[in-house]
TrEMBL record:
Keywords: Cell membrane, Membrane, Transmembrane, Transmembrane helix, Transport. It is found in: Cell membrane. Its main location: membrane. The lineage of its organism: Bacteria, Bacillati, Actinomycetota, Actinomycetes, Pseudonocardiales. This is MFS transporter. The chain crosses the membrane at residues 12-38, 50-74, 86-109, 115-140, 152-173, 185-206, 238-263, 275-296, 305-322, 328-348, 369-391, 397-416. SUPFAM superfamilies: MFS general substrate transporter. Signal peptide: none annotated. The keyword Cell division does not apply. Pfam families: MFS_1. It is a multi-pass membrane protein.
Amino acid sequence: MASASLRVPRRVAAASLVGTTIEWFDFFIYGTAAALVFNKVFFPSVSPAIGTIAALGTFATGFIARPIGGAVFAHFGDRVGRKPMLVYSLLLMGVATVGIGLLPGYATIGVLAPVLLVVLRFAQGFGVGGEWGGAALMAVENAPDHRRGFYGSWPQVGVPLGLVLGTGSFLVLDLTVSEAAFMSWGWRIPFLASAVLIAVGMWIRLTVAESPVFQRDQETREASRMPVLQVLREHPKLIFLAAGSFVATNATFYISSVWLVSYATTELGYARSEILGANTFLSASDIPMILLLGLLSDRLGRRPLFLAGMGLLALFSIPYFLLVQTGVVTLFILGGLVVQACRSAVYGPQSAYFAELFPTHLRYSGASLSYQLASIVGGLAPAICGILVLWTGSLLAVAGFTVLLALISLGSSWAMTETLTRRLDGTADGPREVAAPA
């Protein structure tokens, strides 16, 4: 039986996991639909290649919105609290996602269809922009000092779990309905089904108490009037280094889970069910990697894992795309497992690392801005890959792009400092408990 001291961290971490899973499910089903459907439903008047780039461009709109949403939610998260922002972000995401599921196509309402699609995608991005900071901080600020990496990795698991559910739902549809039915109405089912998931997530999040670290800080310090501007003014270098350390992890995730879904099925001869099945398996395998590396960071530190992951990614990027290019799904999965291990070395400890970088009264703002600035490149990456291949005709151009991103993240991580012994309450670094088994 769990000790009383661990019941609250586990309950909060579980609530953060459920909420982030639902939000990322909503966010990712858009990416899969953009790769497989939206070029035909919303951009039928252009060539298939241009239509796919346009559809992936609307996908990028969500990432442009994410820093804006992150800044707005962070402002109130540092002034009002972490919990209310989690509720509002989930509600906004749910309304936008169901709206996409109900949106008529180009054949019905003409150019208004892609315009409304962009608006709803922007709303999705705005909502998810506030999600990560709140969920990560609730988990980390409720965790014991020696387990912040482990408990902070729980909301991170919401990303692959949301992708498993999203990709898996499209895989089930692909295997059970005809092509005509899938293009007509089947793709809408995951968007509409999210209404039920949102209701469950709202109920869970409303039962969680506010972060005790934030509450104690509010009792001893007057809240910043403009926390986003203050953190930009006081910690600009830290924000951009943190964003740089994450940019390759974020971008390569969307390259493999969004752009490759389209490219592999249209140019490399993979069956759509093969790619959807492979990505579902890879996302599921990512879950234990994230939890294990989050736990490992409580022993080894955050920075060493960031450096190891990005160094290996820089070395393995070209071999990875050579494996993808073979058209053999087992080699596709093998390469994907290595790349996911590289990303998990960053993503597992990230919640704890970014939280430890900033003081409590600016933590939501600093962590969110760092994360969401990196996400802009991530959102643009699928469209950039499409353009690179269109220009060069070679998948190795994408491999070179990935190497460049990995080197940027490696350099940024090298310039950062270790935070393992830092306390979240603002007191000086010092002795702490040795990490115990979770």
